[in-house]
Amino acid sequence: MxxxxxxxxxxxxxxxxxxxxxxxxxxxxxLRDLLLGKQPQEWDIxxxxxxDQVSKLFARVIPTGIDYGTVTVLLADGQYEVTTxxxxxxxYDGRHPANVQFTEDIHKDLARRDFTINALAxxxxxxxxxxxxxxxxxxxxKIIRTVGDPVERFSEDGLRPIRxxxxxxxxxxxxxxxxxxxxxxxxxxxxxxxxxxxxxELVKLLAAEKPSIGFELMRKAGILxxxxxxxxxxxxxxxxxxxxxxxxxxxxxxxxxxxxxxxYRVRLAALLHDVGKPSCKVGFTFYNHDQVGTQxxxxxxxxxxxxNDDIKAITNLIGNHMFDYTANWSxxxxxxxxxxxxxxxxxxxxxxxxxxxxxxxxxxxxLDYLKELEARIQKVxxxxxxxxxxxxxxxxxxxxxxxxxxxxxxVGEVLGALLEKVLDDPSLNDRNKLLxxxxxHA
Length: 442
Prior knowledge:
about 450 residues; 4 domains; two-stranded antiparallel sheet
């Protein structure tokens, strides 16, 4: 344990609290990741000091979860959550304990935690590692297992089963059979979890190397049908064998895996790009599944409290993922394509989902056309062609003045009609020519 790399701030907090006579340990996910040789993204510290005692020892402290004993200490190299040892009484809403009792017993604190691999504590000063529940062995065996009775753990907090599936994907672990079985027995508690919390877990799951591991475990545990029934409905929906090796469900999961790991919007679009197929299936044809899927995805994303910007970006990718480029597209067709997908800023993400879709179909070799289209789009950008109404050399005020009309839908209709002509012939984006053309719309 001597070689564990702990940031200066964490060491300072531990030394300060221990100098004040308080037991203090690194705990939870950061210790788990250190033991796995991974770099922790967050550093959690637990102590016998009460929140008010912690606050007195440091200059900058935020009471981020004061009711549950948590404060955030701000230091030069970052922020650190410091939580008082506690033992929780009965949970009342499938998420929160009815009462939190602070304790000076680290063993009681670890006993309340979710999974064995998160119930480890380490004191850098004495090099003491506390492992009451064989968490190190589970790390070695790559197993997700609850602390104590799994039904009891999941009955306390309905988010824990979803977290378990996420950890399995993040770490590429399996879930211990009794723990997985307990997930099926506590779905009523999962149903009580707020959509915002489910949203946060899904975004974290999408950052795993292979989110498919987590989603498939959620399906086996009955959770997927609760949070993403639209995806669950894709299971068993067969596709044309000449193009697809997998049903719609597995194709969607593998598309998600193939999408850029650092872009949750593209990964989510890849995951949901075919959710319209089950309701559109006629034989091996899926009529208008892109548009049906766009509507289904919009409803799903709203239900899970994604932002309006997220919804707009993700549904735009789903709605346009079926574009069919050929070399005989005219320059005007290329300009219209850019306009249809919402602008050049969306090209990169749309091409990423097309590549992920193809990889899940094992047809990556046929993607040379994307390079050609990319080059043609770059040519449009360099020529500074008008792609939006705002790019026209006239404004709504010009339309109102020329046609002697007041603000209203007519103004937008005229500008839109003029843009259509400019998309066909960019040379028409000339102020005098456009003013002359306005008269044709009187």
